[in-house]
Specification:
The chain is α/β, with parallel strands linked by helices. The protein folds into two domains: 1-79 and 158-243, Rossmann fold (3-Layer(aba) Sandwich), CATH 3.40.50; 89-156, no CATH class. 39% of the residues lie in helices and 26% in strands. The chain has helices at residues 41-48, 70-77, 95-105, 111-124, 140-153, 170-185, 197-203, 221-226, 231-241, and strands spanning 2-12, 15-27, 30-34, 56-61, 64-66, 80-83, 158-162, 190-193, 206-211, 214-220. The chain has a six-stranded mixed sheet, with helices on both faces. A four-stranded antiparallel sheet has the order 2-1-4-5. β9 and β10 form a beta hairpin. It binds adenosine-5'-diphosphate and magnesium ion. Magnesium ion is lined by residues 41-42.
């Protein structure tokens, strides 16, 4: 993918959360977004996901500018798979129905074809035996894998993950990170907000450090972690890597 942000700004009330960000990340397969809590990572991801409209500016994916009007946001969303930190599954639906519902309602796929796609996606993540279960009957790792299965079922051009493991214990974190790594090895493009620095370094081509609504620096993962250029990023990494 080729992702660039163009004078992008977003405020909530008087709180300027994304502050006039212009950056061209260039051609890449996977981008990790890191930075302090409250820095604007989720907001930026939601804007790129087409779930939130910026106040001004915009972004382009593969050279295509995405407008802020509802129609272009809807068209843009059709090609993306999004996974959030707290498994945004419908609690009253089975794992299978969580996947078939958007396929039918959003993508207009016939029920029988949707079920076939959903069963295949569940099989792919070793969830076939859990197809009939509701989220409350699944472990955290299983729920997150259902969310990932749902995200890839539409064959998105880009996957967006917002701290997909932050609600999970270490074993389930590993389970979900394995799945993300598998998707990378399959050649899928993704953008990942994460606190897992080791994983970000391992799996992302590029890393961007976002704080106070600005991309303070970005670069190849190895370089940024080995030699962060800004004091803010150095302090951030020192703080979280201390433990
Ligand atoms: P991060 O993901 O880096 O922790 P967020 O993008 O979630 O940061 O939040 C950045 C800032 O925007 C925070 O100050 C947060 O309180 C504020 N914020 C985020 N979403 C909303 C919202 N829907 N309404 C009001 N304020 C929000
Ligand atoms: Mg966040």
């Amino acid at each position: 993918m080729h992702l660039s942000l163009e004078a992008l700004s977003k405020s909530f009330g008087t709180n300027r959360v994304i502050d006039n960000v212009t950056v061209d990340f260039g051609e890449l397969r996977s981008l990790a977004l890191i930075g302090p809590s409250g820095g604007g990572k989720s907001t930026l991801l939601r804007i790129i996901a087409g779930l939130e409209a910026p106040d001004s500016g915009g972004f382009a994916l593969d050279g295509q500018h995405v407008g802020a009007d509802e129609e272009s946001l809807r068209a843009h969303r059709l090609h993306l798979g999004v996974v959030f930190q707290a498994y945004n599954l419908f609690p009253h639906l089975t794992a299978l129905a969580n996947i078939t519902l958007p396929l039918e309602k959003v993508h207009g796929i016939a029920p029988s074809a949707a079920e076939e796609i959903a069963r295949e996606a569940l099989r792919r993540f070793a969830l076939a035996d859990h197809a009939h279960k509701k989220p409350a009957e699944l472990s955290g790792g299983q729920k997150q894998r259902v969310a990932i299965a749902r995200a890839i079922a539409i064959k998105p051009r880009l996957l967006l993950f917002d701290e997909p493991t932050s609600a999970l214990d270490p074993e389930m974190t590993a389970e979900v990170l394995d799945v993300i790594e598998e998707l990378k090895n399959e050649g899928r493009d993704f953008l990942l907000v994460t606190h897992e620095m080791g994983f970000a370094r391992h799996v992302a081509d590029r890393v961007a450090f976002l704080a106070q609504g600005r991309i303070i620096e970005h670069g190849p993962a190895g370089e940024l972690f080995a030699a962060p250029q800004s004091r803010e990023c150095r302090d951030f990494l020192a703080r979280i890597l201390r433990h």
